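ok new one. same drill as before - structure tokens go in, u give me an amino acid for every spot. 346 of them this time. try not to just spam alanines like last time pls lmao
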């Protein structure tokens, strides 16, 4: 399978920092909070049963980062979408059974943009892990480990991933919509959603920093470019040069629905803190990103993180540990150990 998206055009604006790389891309409320999940996990969970786990996963993520770089941001997002729906239990990796009445999470509308490269990366990592440690390591732990690797490979922090997640037995598309944020959610809505997962306002700001890499389709910010809240004008909270550049690739009507733009218009491929500086300069693409720099509750942290990359890295590593602990399952009652991440154990 072709793993690299086709670069279709780049926008050249007079403003160098706004150069945008455009890419065509093929197309239950949690019973247990992050805090409870954290107590169930440990860094040395596989110390006896699969001591070389991190190296095995790294052999795949390193190769994927070079050969299919889209895998990086896509896997980080895959992990986020897994954790927020039924907890970090690999439920997003399940494929809908042919003939099944109910679709699996993966096929929900809100997951349709998750790039195949992410699923392929986890499948490949699982194969390598199974070849050395058969039947031992959960898909959920492999996903958490791979997401960390990609963050680090892109220049972000390296942190120890706590393990011990079992894979989940439930994967329903209908659980996705109420558990994921949308590009036009308000800060109040985001705070409420994150709180329902045991995550704080600060976690929201820090985890949103994952948008320092990766891409978004035009549909997620189109409303900000042309007719913001029925004004027939762009969102005043977006830099006018960025509006101009984005309009070139994202027309009001009839645009190519596969076109994407980088979240971080200054350093799109580096995992750094430029995302926060961009928000201060009105260069956020999603309304939710830009709102973090405008809301008085989140603005001070945006300022701090824009100034201090190390502070962002430390906070991000901690917040990923918290997010990675949402809804953790242990034992056969709620969990399973899949050999094939896309299929439940029968
Ligand atoms: C705070 C609320 C959030 C909203 C509203 C949001 C929304 C979005 C949207 C609309 C996209 C673009 C999807 C597409 O068009 O393909 C996206 C991409 C992405 N999101 Fe978020 N997101 C949020 C939080 C997070 C969090 C917490 C993480 C991880 C910790 C994350 C990681 C990513 C990554 C890495 C991408 C790029 C994916 C790629 O390039 O394949 N997001 N997000």
């Amino acid at each position: 399978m072709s793993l690299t998206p086709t670069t279709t055009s780049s926008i050249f604006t007079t403003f160098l920092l706004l150069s945008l790389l455009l890419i065509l891309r093929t197309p239950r409320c949690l019973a247990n909070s992050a805090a409870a999940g954290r107590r169930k996990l440990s860094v040395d969970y596989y110390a006896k049963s699969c001591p070389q786990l991190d190296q095995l996963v790294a052999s795949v993520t390193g190769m994927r980062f070079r050969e299919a770089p889209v895998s990086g941001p896509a896997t980080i997002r895959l992990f986020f979408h897994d954790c927020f729906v039924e907890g970090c239990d690999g439920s997003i990796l399940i494929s809908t059974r042919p003939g099944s009445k109910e679709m699996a999470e993966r096929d929900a509308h809100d997951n349709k943009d998750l790039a195949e490269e992410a699923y392929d990366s986890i499948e490949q990592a699982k194969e390598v892990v199974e070849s050395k440690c058969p039947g031992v390591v959960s898909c959920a732990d492999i996903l958490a480990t791979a997401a960390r690797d990609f963050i680090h490979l892109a220049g972000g922090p390296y942190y120890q991933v706590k393990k011990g997640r079992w894979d989940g037995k439930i994967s329903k598309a209908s659980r996705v919509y109420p558990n994921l944020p949308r590009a036009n959610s308000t800060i109040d809505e985001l705070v409420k959603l994150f709180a329902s997962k045991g995550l704080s306002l600060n976690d929201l700001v820090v985890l949103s920093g994952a948008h320092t890499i990766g891409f978004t389709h035009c549909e997620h910010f189109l409303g900000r470019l042309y007719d913001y809240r029925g004004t027939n004008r762009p969102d005043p909270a977006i830099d006018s040069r960025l509006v101009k550049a984005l309009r070139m690739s994202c027309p009001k009507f009839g645009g190519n629905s596969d076109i994407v733009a980088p979240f971080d218009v200054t350093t799109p491929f580096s995992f750094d803190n430029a995302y926060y500086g961009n928000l201060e300069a009105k260069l956020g693409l999603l309304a939710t990103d830009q709102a973090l720099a405008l809301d008085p509750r989140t603005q001070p942290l945006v300022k701090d993180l824009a100034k201090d990359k190390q502070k962002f890295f430390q906070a991000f590593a901690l917040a990923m540990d918290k997010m990675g602990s949402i809804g953790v399952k242990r034992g056969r009652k709620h969990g399973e150990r899949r050999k094939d991440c896309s299929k439940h154990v029968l």
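Strands lie at 6-11, 20-24, 167-168, 215-217, 259-262, 335-336. and btw The chain has a mean pLDDT of 92.
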